[in-house]
Amino acid sequence: MIYLASHCNDTELAVDAWAEAVAWLPARVREGLSGYWRWQDRQAGLYGKLLLRRVGQAATGRVPDLSQLRTDTYQRPSLADMPDFDFNISHTAGLVVCGGATGMGRLGVDVERIGAVDITEFRRVFTEGEYAYLSGLDEPAAEFFRLWTRKEAVMKADGRGFYLDPSGIDCLSERVSVGGVGYGVMPLDLGNAYAAHVAARSVEAVCMLG
Amino acid sequence: MTSQANKKIEAVYPLNELQRALLFHHRADPTHDEGLIQVHFRLTGLLDRRRFLEAWQQTFRRHPVLRASVHWENISQPVWVIHPAAAPDIQWLEGAGAQERSPSDQWQAFLAADRNTPLELSKSPACRLTGLSVDGDTHYFAWTSHHLLLDGWSAEVVLRDVLRFYAGEDLAGAPIPSHKDYLRWKQQQRPEEATAFWRQQLDRHRGPTLFPAARGSQVEVRAVVTGALKAGVERYARARGLSLNTVVQGVWACLLGRYFGTPTVSFGTTVSGRPPEMPGFETVAGMYVHVLPKIVDLEPAGDFLQEIQLVNGRSQPYSYLTEEELYDDTVSPPFNNLLTVQNFPWKALSGGGLRVTDYHGDMTSTYPLSCVVVLRDEWTIVLRHLTDSVTQRQAEWFLNGFRQLLERLTALADGATFTVAMSREDLGPPPRGGARPGVAAYVPPANRTQVELVRIWSGLLPVDRIGIDDDFFDLGGTSFLALRLFNRIEQHFGRRISPSILLHHRSVRRLAERVSDTGEADGWNNLVPIRVAGQLPPLFCFHAGEGNVLMYQELLAHLHPDRPVYALQPNGIDGASELDGSIETMAAHYLAEIDQLGAPDPLNLVAYCYSGAICLEIGRLLLASGRPAPRIVGTDIDPPGYAPAESGGRTKRRRGSLRWYWGHLRLGLWDTAFEQFAGDVLPDAWLGEELRLRLRARRLKMGLIDAYDRYAWPDYAGEVLLLRSRDLRRWKTHDHVVNAWQRVTGGRLKLGDIDSGHEDMYRAPAVEEVASKIEAYVTSGRS
Q1: B190-345+362-426 belongs to which CATH class?
Q2: What SUPFAM superfamilies has UniProt attached to this entry (chain A) (predicted)?
């Protein structure tokens, strides 16, 4: 079962609320947050950790210890003391999403806010087929974000993220394959303003925490 | 012109300053166009769609501005053009079906999408009309237009006419005055009298009221005032004989005063711009609203609210003067916040069995902070702020403070005076912030690759200034933005690099190493980039007599945020390169580096003390090569023939000669003599670190002075603006300085004054005034 949770991030927290919320974070994580220039990014970082706590508890029955956070050579985060539990966080303007599961291998989550887009700027991230498909649409924006979040979710599930060449991964078909490994991709309903997907070897069972 | 051609265009008008500013914003990002106006409302009553469209068409025939388009490409200056006819159409949205989405949700989704859909200004009509019928009696309607052509006042004018036409009224008998009538009326006014009045007002300010200039998006917070509070304020105003407009201006002034802690505050106020002397002009749609300055003394002798009211009355006859006419290269607005009070009587909009409800007007502002107060059955206070400039907490402080001060007013006995001191008692300290916590110090780019990368980052990231050690993700970067970043890198540098590089090369410095084959080899000798991002022509600031350029750092915060700034430092400052031996060589080297940047002519040059000579020589080089003269702003620049300190004023002996040593030792100048000796005789290895640096600085300074003394000061056929400090004006050398520059420039010297000492010109608070005068001069062009 993949557990998912999201949090709206469109309002700046009051000083007291912020201080209260970051108080329980390990000092190293707190310092990391203070590097962000904009409150939107600082808060996205905070909410990501809050959601991880929630999702971790739902999936494993215990609250993750954030001092165990590590990143691997591909800059992918994991918890050192919970090797069976994998999680993934994604944020975009106004929203943060976290997914997590145990005993299922890696999973990837991606969310983007749908907005105007010049698809020529993204020519190199799509396969020939994908780009031809998007170019043929009168209003490609929504479909662009749908396709892109599918792709990024798969790249994150693979674990190598941007170390993969996105233009080599065809996301038009239902199951997406990377180097011979197949991934299931499921759309997440987070409102009309957002496109979001979760990808894993199996996405049969997904639970959105309220 | 043939009659056929005549039919194509009814009139052409150049854009005024505000319109040009709005056009700039439109072109910068049409999908987040701050000038877009979205007026939307609900129509109740049986609607005949065909008749409603005809009513709009008739209204378009009545108001020429509705048939206008805007043009800026391939012409010398942007214009708006009125076409004889325009064919507006209404797009009626199909209902989504109640199961899928409620009509209200569908409408909100449409409004959100519509707001981010660029308006095609170059096509007539430059607006969109959209409707959604909920049922036979209820309809949503939106009219999306642009502030470049229409002001807020126009919305009601147009809607009223639409409903009158819809009701079958014939308005042919009530023609409206044309824009040409307005221009004729303007010509009959005496702008010099109005300008003198407003300049006198501007002279009253003691320190500008400026929020940090930044980019970011405009968001708003709002509050509503009703019931006892509203009635209490109205009662107080009546009892004191004050207009509500005065009360609101007073409250706003108190808030600004508490926020900035200054004895005076200034803000812009909007006026309708429709002259009461022109009958019927209040029923004309167009762009006539403009912003006039309001300066409020917060330490007045008498009642400050009465004072505000008095000045408001006196300013009324001069309120036709536009920003363009009021400000020039010597005078610029001392504020970047706006107060709009909408207190015109609101009459219900209805006609032909239709009624407008849930009316939502729209406001446009490019200021960091704007306050709109709508005085109707209930009062609405809207604070619109630029997120990177004024934080939400700060905006909320203003909003809460507004309410607190209104409450204080109502608590006063009707005859009692409201004072600024009371406002200080009531308001808590304003929240500070917006600064970046715990982030590495700003380091500017040092070579061309870094400059180009900073430019690319600036186009993508929502921040004002990017240093080469800043982390892409700390600045708001996302993987999605990374894709666009690498696409732009590929286009600019012709190199395809994987976005994964960014995970380990997260700063401009690190990324530049991967992008540039030549590494550090493409650095500059003299040019120091201080801020490279920005659309405006850059400013080049030249070193002073000791070679350093650090004093220009503070200037940056007060210049236009879109203006790149570069400083020029001399060769030899690093102790490695050879010092240029003459002003001519320096000028040639500096100009060569400036030209590598491809900055447009005329160049904008800023000199301080020593560097007036260098700028003059650069001007001479430019003219000799057939290029236009640069705009030179000299701040307390040394005059031709002036011997700067230590150039031998005391002794004319050659430095380092036996007679020189003898003279110095006799006068007890042991340190100077020793340093000279050490520098002349001892090998570098024998000297301590500190002495070596001191000697290097001394060698540089002396070299610069020698070059200055040797400069021939040829006549210069360009203009120079000399900004004089209070010290310069008092010094006995003052007349010599002015006369000498007059002579060299053949009488083309302009003068401006700064209210500070010589040493403090580039420090707060004087630096703001220096920056605003530099901006005014380089923006307005030559006089």
Answers
A1: alpha beta
A2: 4'-phosphopantetheinyl transferase
Interface check for A43 against chain B (CB to CB < 8 A): the answer is no
Which CATH class for the B437-523 domain? mainly alpha
pLDDT digits (tens, 9 = 90+) for B686-742: 666 666 667 777 778 888 888 888 888 899 999 999 999 999 999 888 999 999 999
Condensed to tens digits (0 to 9), the pLDDT of residues B649-666 reads 344 556 667 777 777 777
Give the pLDDT score at B649: 39
Q: Strand locations in B258-378, DSSP E? A: 264-271, 290-297, 337-342, 350-351, 354-360, 369-375
Q: Which domains does chain A have, with CATH numbers?
A: 2-208 (3.90.470.20)
* Maximum C-alpha span of chain A: 51
- Least Cα distance to A176 among A158, A195, A194 occurs for A158
Say whether domain B525-641+713-783 belongs to CATH 3.40.50.1820: yes
List of chain A residues whose C-beta atoms are within 8 Å of the C-beta of residue B504: 75
Q: Which of residues 95-154 of A touch B (CB under 8 A)?
A: 112, 115-116, 121-125, 148, 152
Chain A residues inside the 8 Å CB shell of B484:
121-122
Q: Which two tokens stand for residue B396?
A: 């909320």
* Rounded Cα distance, B101 and B393, in Å: 35
Nearest to A37 among B392, B431, B474 (CB): B474
Are the beta carbons of A162 and B478 separated by less than 8 Å?
no
Which of B393, B439, B502 is nearest residue A12 as measured by Cβ atoms?
A: B393
CB contact under 8 A, B484 and A122: yes
